[in-house]
Amino acid sequence: MKHEFKVKVSMYMSYLLRHNPENLKMDRHGFVSLDEFLERIKERFQVDKKFIFEIVEKSERKRFEIVEDKIRALYGHTIPVKLELQEDRTVKVLYHGTTWDAASKILKVGLKPMKRKWVHSSPTIKIAKEVGLRKTRKPVILEINAEAARHNGVRFYKASDRVYLCNDLSPKYIKLAKTRKTLGARNV
Q1: Which H or E run includes 72?
Q2: Which of 83, 91, 114, 132 is most buried, judged by most C-beta within 10 A?
Q3: Is residue 188 part of a domain?
């Protein structure tokens, strides 16, 4: 029960910090006052500051960060924010978990941010599979040649240990990842 409650609170936190701050004063970097944010959360959920810190610090996906007396989402925004993340210049391969239908399109037109501001990718097949499982029971994993893309001007940013961001990504840097499930799978 506690886990389900945390998920609901975390989803509302994501909604406020990524998509609609609902009149919270957000700076250009996506930060809002932690006290104001807590008051907004309390309008829906009986929580305290300790509970919010627990979500931020113990979340496996590292969606949020608290700096001094402010909180923000680290990625997934549909509203304009200036994250100022450090460019990653070392990652060679990234992965993207998705559905078979989406993979077919991505292999033709590339990865686009869609409604978000960035394309999201994962550092491991395992994490990409977890992401894909949110959309389908049988995700397909795409492999991104980050090294080649970087040599042609694409910049990758590490938002967390589980999420890397970039702008549009050409299909020439994307292929079906070689996993046990895709080796015997249908042609995309």
Answers
A1: strand 70-73
A2: 132
A3: no
Residues 94 and 178 in one domain: yes
- Residue 10's Cβ-count burial label (10 Å; 0-12, 13-18, 19+) is middle
Rounded Cα distance between 33 and 162, Å, is 26
pLDDT in tens, 139-184: 999 999 999 999 999 999 998 888 999 988 999 999 999 875 544 4
The total number of structural domains that make up the chain:
2
Same domain, 144 and 177: yes
Quick: pLDDT tens for 154-163: 999 998 888 9
Residue type, 149: A
* Domain membership of residue 158 as a residue range: 87-183
Same domain, 61 and 118: no
Are residues 113 and 179 both part of a single domain? yes
The owner of tokens 């009986």 is 46
Dihedral sign, CA of 87, 88, 94, 97? negative
